[in-house]
């Protein structure tokens, strides 16, 4: 699997390159700024790009904008964005084009190698990976919030769903059967007034949109809740 990295911190970029190489990835290029990243994507046509949110020269959101441009120009290129801090607005911006192959993780997750590599592979395969800290902020209760109607276990399932996990992984994390997860998911969608959906990425988008308050109307369902 071919990867392009956009990271201006030389030590972090080198560490990422080494980690990915030891896990069987081919790192085609490492770019230190947005223009170099876009050139590398055009030259190497990677299977996934890993991009720092903040790149030179202003160190604001050049990475996000470069990632979105790369997706527009190169057929929904899978993108995993890394950030030092939780910046919840980026989650909605990255998911706004409605296509899969999107991830947003804190840089601390790189140290959890198995989880990080799983996220890279999931995003490259067209899935979604959202950092648990981002999801936790979105789950913060507000007065009169419909989330209050969820049970503790339903909230746990909702958080895992929003991170991009499928039912099998949620069942494993919660130590319950997939049938029990199916029931939790159905209850969650019913209580939050979301249309059930069998598409993994569309399901994640619907949940994140609801939690972020950006939309209460997900895409039309393609099947039943999983």
UniProtKB/TrEMBL annotation:
Q: Which GO terms describe its biological process?
A: phosphorelay signal transduction system; regulation of DNA-templated transcription
Alphabetically, the GO molecular function entries are: DNA binding
- Domain Response regulatory positions: 2-122
Q: Which CDD domains match?
A: LuxR_C_like, REC_NarL-like
4-aspartylphosphate modifications at: 52
What keywords is this UniProt entry annotated with? Answer: DNA-binding, Phosphoprotein, Transcription, Transcription regulation
Q: Which residues form the HTH luxR-type domain?
A: 143-214
Q: Quote the protein name from its UniProt record.
A: DNA-binding response regulator
Species for this entry: Actinomadura logoneensis
């Amino acid at each position: 699997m071919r990867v392009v990295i956009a990271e201006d911190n030389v030590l972090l970029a080198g560490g990422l390159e080494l980690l990915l190489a030891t896990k069987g990835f081919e790192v085609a290029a490492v770019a230190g700024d947005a223009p170099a990243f876009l050139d590398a994507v055009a030259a190497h046509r990677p299977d996934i790009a890993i991009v720092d949110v903040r790149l030179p020269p202003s160190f604001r959101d050049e990475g996000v904008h470069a990632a979105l441009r790369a997706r527009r120009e190169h057929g929904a290129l899978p993108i995993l964005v890394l950030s030092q801090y939780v910046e919840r607005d980026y989650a909605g911006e990255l998911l706004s084009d409605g296509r899969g192959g999107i991830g947003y993780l804190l840089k601390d997750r790189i140290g959890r190698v198995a989880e990080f590599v799983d996220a890279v592979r999931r995003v490259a395969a067209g899935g979604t990976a959202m950092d648990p800290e981002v999801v936790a902020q979105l789950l913060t209760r507000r007065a009169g919030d419909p989330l209050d109607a969820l049970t503790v276990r339903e909230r746990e399932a909702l958080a895992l769903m929003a991170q991009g996990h499928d039912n099998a992984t949620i069942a494993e994390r919660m130590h319950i059967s997939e049938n029990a997860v199916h029931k939790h998911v159905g209850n969650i969608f019913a209580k939050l007034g979301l249309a059930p959906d069998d598409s993994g990425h569309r399901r994640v988008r619907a949940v994140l949109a609801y939690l972020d308050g950006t939309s209460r109307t997900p895409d039309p369902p393609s099947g039943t809740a999983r």
